[in-house]
Amino acid sequence: MAFEYDMMGRGDSSRYEYLYRCMRADIESGEAAPGQRLPSKRVLAKREGVSLVTVEKAYAQLEAEGYVRARERSGYFVALRQPVRVPAADVRTARISRRQEQDDAVPVPSGASAAPVSTAASATGASAAAGDGPARPAVQPLQEFHGGSGLIADFSWPAYNPGVAATLWSRALRDTLAHEGDRELYAPQPSRGSLRLRRAIASHLASFRGMDVDPGRIVIGAGAQMLYGMVAQLILHATGASTGMPDAHAPAVGARLPSGVRLPADASAPSDTPVVAVENPGYPRLASIYSAYGFRIRHVPVDAEGIDMDGLDASGASVVHIMPSHQFPTGRVTSVTRRYELLGWLAGGAERYLVEDDYDNEFRLAGRPVPSLASIDVLGRVVYIGTFSKSLGSALRLAYMVLPPVLSRRYDDDLGFYSNTVSVVDQICLSRLLESGDYERHVNRFRTQRCTVRDLFLDALADTPAGGMCHVEEADSGLHFVLAVDAPCGEGRIARLALRHGVRLAPMSGYVQASAVARPPADRRAARIEDMPLPGYGDSRPRFVMQYDGLTPQAAPQAARALAAAVLEANAARA
């Protein structure tokens, strides 16, 4: 029966933690139905033989993570929409445990102005959420709006609010320094990173993503961008290609010509180097990173199901880098059918690889995540990259990749000489957070908070006269959504009007490769990319990438009203 437990079986867990975990398990399994009323705190405390404080702490934790909702003078009820979790299969957990026992027995060798909202954002200045986040724009991050000074909200980049994460990390760091031995904190670590952290990440992936991962194939790095570079080197070595660096005198990748047209990202790359396909619209820095290692770049459109397969086939690429769980910037989720088509594409060439960038996998707000490509890859050609930037902040520079067996062996041969780029203290600190469950609880709380803020903003926007002109797309995939607007003008004008009202927007066109956009036949030189049709969309609505990482509950309604005013002003020309 739900909410009846044997407290004698709690082992080393505290009473509050054991009670919380038991109740959470009942809710997740469906034993407790959505909307069901929980026992009163006094009744449950008497039934389980614990103090009222213990029950209050358990209820508070469940409420913070979104499992239950409190109603004034009515008590606690199971939430109607549960936080997303992907429980690991028992067999996978057992396999990981056995593998960890084997690892214990084998010694591990040590490793010898404002953003341009009125025009398309540039490849280096545009805001992006993938990996470690974007280059910092010239404006200050989100700040309170006081008497007309500053911004109400900045949706153009992930202005992370560090409060909760900073407190969590500070406490964990103090505990790490106080309780971990010097041998653990200061001993040389393998090139791949701390084995303890790699085991903790493997267990985390099993729990959240249902992935059976060998800790020996995990590499820790100081941010996803560093790992992208390592992947590029590994693939070049694996395919026998030489690294051809771009001509020093050639224009920079993504440079703007006087006509407003960007050069192709591979304009100066040697013709014998491999081709990598990236998504369009997509994360601007990817093309720059791969191009820096000598890859030729092909921008392939993204449709409703993911990266376009006809475009991928036509690109001649041997590598494709995608974000299937939450594509940036469109927010789209690659369908299961398209995922298997991508695996079929991998099978079409002996030296093809796929990089799965799962940068904010923990923050899907509704429904269960589609299985990762790495978890269904039978060929061993998928590189899985994850990061803690969204949950703990990009300042900590913590990311990881799971290499397929062939590239994992190649890593030892070709890159094993590198010292690991992440502080050992930080690695042990993160290990403790993952092992204790504190990280999971933090993610659950943060997910609930972000969902609440998003709903505050969208509800307030829907209640304005402009509500019917604003269409929300992909709102449940992660910490950004897309806002499509009915307006007789382009993205640039709406963004300028919104900025005057105190809201900074990121036009979708800022993430589109200009050379891939179909230009109108007339007036080519005067045409601006933000006024052209976006690839992968069936209409011509202006669209904006709404990153709400740093939006506060206090600012959300005011930001919605300010944005609505800008939309109404943009539509006034229609009258």
Task: Explain briefly what this protein structure is.
With 575 residues, this protein is of the alpha/beta class.
Major β-sheet profile: 8 strands, mixed
Name the beta content range.
Answer: 5-15%
- Average pLDDT over all residues: 78
Cα shape: globular
Report, as a whole number of angstroms, the end-to-end distance.
Answer: 63 Å
| Main structural class | alpha/beta
What is the CATH top level name of the domain at 187-437?
Alpha Beta
Indicate the low-confidence ranges by residue numbers.
Answer: 84-131, 133-149, 243-265, 516-527
CATH homologous group name of the domain at 187-437: Type I PLP-dependent aspartate aminotransferase-like (Major domain)
Total number of strands: 15
What is the radius of gyration?
A: 25 Å
Query: What is the CATH architecture annotation of the domain at 187-437?
Result: 3-Layer(aba) Sandwich
Biggest β-sheet: strands ordered side by side in the sheet: 4-11-10-9-8-5-6-7
Q: Counting H and I runs of at least 4 residues, what is the number of helices?
A: 17
CATH topology of the domain at 187-437: Aspartate Aminotransferase, domain 2
Task: Describe the secondary structure blueprint for this structure.
Layout: H1 15-29, H2 41-48, H3 52-64, E1 68-71, E2 75-78, H4 90-105, E3 153-154, H5 163-179, H6 182-186, H7 195-209, E4 218-221, H8 224-239, E5 275-280, H9 284-292, E6 296-303, E7 306-307, H10 309-315, E8 319-322, H11 336-347, E9 353-357, E10 382-387, H12 389-392, E11 399-402, H13 405-414, H14 424-436, H15 438-462, E12 470-473, E13 480-485, H16 491-500, E14 503-504, E15 543-547, H17 555-571
Parallel strand pairs: 3-14, 5-6, 5-8, 8-9, 9-10
Antiparallel strand pairs: 1-2, 4-11, 6-7, 10-11, 12-13, 13-15
Family: In the C-terminal section; belongs to the class-I pyridoxal-phosphate-dependent aminotransferase family.
GO molecular function: DNA binding; DNA-binding transcription factor activity
Protein name: GntR family transcriptional regulator
